[in-house]
Specification:
The protein is mainly α. It has 9 helices and no strands. The longest helix is centred in the middle third of the chain and has 47 residues, at 126-172.
Length: 235
């Protein structure tokens, strides 16, 4: 019979395992493929007629973009779990709060993608065109595509708060570089400012904020390259 304390220790994810799990979760995310290649390939801004034709003609590309978003959200749940374990030695309560913010972002993002699924069904089902007519159908598709972007944008506001909390935890830790924590705090603030810009300061030119978004890329590289060297005793 295995002692209970030994069984609990063997079942627990180590900090090294948590770091690598989060790192590979980041690495496998296909969101960039969806955002910068698949989605723009079919959705033409300001031209809903051409967009509708593209989705009908290239349905597999549109579905591939949807699947990329869904896979990303599944990986976000895994990353939230791994980062909670990784940062729990610093402050368990705050680490749990950061994980919940990432899960909230994931939930809102998932709801936003449901708009794309509805768009696909509207355009690929002939009965809807007969029932609504092309003008009303295109108007609904346009509304759903914009709803996807609005909901996705608001999810990134929540994601930014998650990054600020995560960055603070890393900054306070003794087993991860403080510079990574500072980068993630700046990254998170960048997401918050970029999301609120259209509502609070729509005329401001803040294109340079895009630079702050590379904080997560640096964090991912550190997890993959240095994460396996984390010592349990250091935590």
């Amino acid at each position: 019979m295995i002692p209970s304390n030994l069984a609990n220790h063997s079942d627990r994810l180590t900090l090294r395992q948590a770091a690598l799990t989060a790192g590979f979760g980041y690495l496998l995310m296909p969101v960039a493929l969806a955002e910068y290649y698949l989605y723009p390939k079919v959705v033409i801004l300001g031209n809903i007629e051409q967009t509708s034709q593209n989705i009908v003609a290239h349905g597999k590309v549109f579905v591939a973009a949807i699947l990329c978003y869904l896979i990303t959200f599944v990986l976000d749940v895994v990353i939230a779990w791994a980062l909670y374990i990784l940062m729990a030695p610093v402050n368990r309560s705050l680490s749990l709060l950061a994980a919940w913010y990432r899960l909230m972002y994931t939930a809102v993002g998932l709801v936003s993608v449901l708009n794309l699924i509805t768009v696909f069904r509207l355009l690929r089902t002939p009965d809807y065109l007969e029932a609504f007519g092309s003008v009303q159908l295109h108007a609904q598709v346009n509304l759903l595509l914009h709803s996807f972007r609005y909901d996705w944008s608001m999810s990134l506001l929540i994601f930014g708060i998650h990054l600020v909390l995560l960055g603070y935890l890393i900054y306070r830790s003794t087993y991860m570089p403080r510079s990574i924590g500072i980068l993630l705090i700046i990254d998170g603030l960048g997401w918050v400012i970029d999301t609120l810009r259209p509502y609070l300061f729509p005329t401001a030119q803040l294109g340079f904020i895009f630079i702050t978004f590379f904080g997560e890329l640096i964090f991912m590289l550190w997890l993959l390259i240095k994460g396996w060297k984390i010592q349990e005793s250091a935590a």
